[in-house]
Amino acid sequence: MARNSATTGLESRAGESVFSSPVALAFVGTVVARRGVSDAQARKIYLDYLTRAQREQRPSKAA
Length: 63
What we know:
Radius of gyration: 15 Å
Order of helices and strands: HHH
Number of strands: 0
Largest sheet: none
Strand content: under 5%
Structural class: mainly alpha
């Protein structure tokens, strides 16, 4: 059975490099243990956190 995926090979490798960090793995493990969610859900939470942090670091154009 084939599985359809919306990610490209490049996106998949970029995601793998994010989760090669011991900090990222510790975050995911903590979220799994504390919230009782799956590993995939915890990884999504971490990626959402990174996206939000990057968005907040961008300087505003209103200056």
